[in-house]
Amino acid sequence: MPTITRRHDPDRRARILRATLDVVAEHGVAGTTHRRIAAVADVPLGSMTYHFASLDDLLTEAFTLLADTVAARFTERLAAAGTRAEACEAVVDLVVDDSWATPRNLLLSYELYAYAARVPALRGVMQGWMGKSRAALEQHFAPGTARALDAMIEGLSIHRSVDLEPAGRAEVRAIVARLTGDALALP
Amino acid sequence: MPTITRRHDPDRRARILRATLDVVAEHGVAGTTHRRIAAVADVPLGSMTYHFASLDDLLTEAFTLLADTVAARFTERLAAAGTRAEACEAVVDLVVDDSWATPRNLLLSYELYAYAARVPALRGVMQGWMGKSRAALEQHFAPGTARALDAMIEGLSIHRSVDLEPAGRAEVRAIVARLTGDALALP
DNA sequence: CCGCGATGCGTACATATGTACATATCGCAG
DNA sequence: CTGCGATATGTACATATGTACGCATCGCGG
C-alpha cells in the first residue's frame, strides 16, 4: 500500500512550542487550542498529546521559552554597553526600538502575566525573568536605580503601545536621565 | 400549579457585569463562560443571552466598567491632593496601598490588555483610561512628568506584584521624587 | 540485519459551550 | 383593570474541544 509520506521530524517539539506562541499571539490563551496549534505547526493532532501531557503543560513550556528568550536578548543588549552613557542609550532602545517592545512581545507578556497568576510554575519563571533583567541593569547602575529603570521600561513600553501619540525617543531619554540622576537637558 | 419563586430583579444586568469581572479574575478570560457567570450572578442561563448579545459583548462591557471605575478612583485620589507634596504622596499610595494595586485589579488589567488587543472597542476604552490618568496627574505636574509618573505607576505596580521582595514605600517615594525633580534624600 | 523503543498518525468519544427559542410571568401605562 | 411590552426561565442542539488509544513506521544499537 502506498502510505502517505511520513515525516521524520527531529525538532517537531520545538516547532510546536514556537507555533504555540504564534497562536497565543494571534488568538490569546482563550482561543488557543490543540487543533489550531497543530495546524500552524503542521503536525497531526495526535502529536500534541504525545509531546505534551496537556495543553497547560504546553502553554507553560511555551511561556517559559518566551521568558528565557526575551531575558537573554535584554541581557545581551545591556552587556554590549561599555560606558554608562551607552547603557542609558541601550535602555532607551529597549523601550523605543522595534527589537523587544514589539506588539507581539507586549501581547505575549500580557497573556503570560494573566496566565501566570493561575500557574505557580510560571510565577517562578517571571521572577527569574525579572531577576535577570535587574542583574543586567545592575552591571551599570546602582540597585535602586536598576529597579526603577526596570519598572520604567515595563510601564513605558505598555503605555507606548496604547498611546495614540507615544513618547518619542527624546522624551524617553529625558526620563531615563532623571532616573539615573545624570544631568541632561529637560524638555 | 405552585410555580417556583420568580424574582423581580431590577439590577440584574449590573450584577451580571460584576459577576463577569469576578469570573475573569478567578478563571481568566480563557475560563470565562456563560454558565460560570450565571452561577456567580445567581441567574439562569437564559438571562445571559437576553441581556447581552454575545459573550464578547459582555466582556467588552465588563472591561469598560472596570476601566471607568478604576480611572474614577485614580482621579479622585489625586484630586484630593492640595499641595504638590500631597500629590507625590498620592502617587506613592496608588502604587503601594491596597486600594488600587490590589492583586485582583492587576490581574484584571492583564486580562484587559490582552483582550483589548483583539477588540477595537476596548482599545478606545484603554486610551480613555490612560488619558484620564494623565489628566489627573497634569493637575499637579508638567505634562512630561505626568507621562513619566503614569508609566512608572504601571510598571512599579506590576513589578511589585511579581517581586518576592517588593520595593517598599520609602523606595517608591525616592523614585517619584527623582521623576518629579523634587529634591529628596536618596537611600 | 534485526528487533525494539521512540515517534508519527488518524480517529473516536465524552463533555462543555455558545446561542436560539418557546413559553411563562411581571410591571405599568392607559 | 387590562393589555402589552419587557423580562425571566428552562431546555434543546449543533459544534468545538481535550484527551485517549490502536496501529503504522522509523532510527539505531547490538
Layout of SSEs?
The structure is a homodimer of 187-residue chains.
Chain A: H1 12-27, H2 34-41, H3 45-51, H4 55-79, H5 84-96, H6 103-116, H7 120-138, H8 143-162, H9 169-180
Helix pairs in contact in A: 1-2, 1-4, 4-5, 4-7, 5-8, 5-9, 6-7, 7-8, 8-9
Chain A binds a DNA duplex (30 and 30 nucleotides) through helix 3.
What does this entry look like structurally?
- 2 copies of one chain form a homodimer.
- The first copy, chain A, is an all-alpha fold.
- The first copy, chain A, folds into 2 domains: 43 residues, Homeodomain-like (Arc Repressor Mutant, subunit A); 126 residues, Tetracycline Repressor, domain 2.
- In chain A, 72% of the residues lie in helices and 0% in strands.
- Chain A contains 9 helices and no strands.
- The longest helix of chain A is centred in the middle third of the chain and has 25 residues.
- Chain A is elongated, with a radius of gyration of 20 Å.
- The mean pLDDT of chain A is 94.
- The interface between A and B is large, with 42 and 42 residues.
- The first copy, chain A, binds a DNA duplex (30 and 30 nucleotides) through α3.
- Chains A, B: InterPro entries: Homeodomain-like_sf, HTH_TetR, Tet_transcr_reg_TetR-rel_C_sf, TetR_C_31.
- Chains A, B: Keywords: DNA-binding, Transcription, Transcription regulation.
- Chains A, B: GO terms for molecular function: DNA binding.
- Chains A, B: It comes from Methylobacterium frigidaeris.
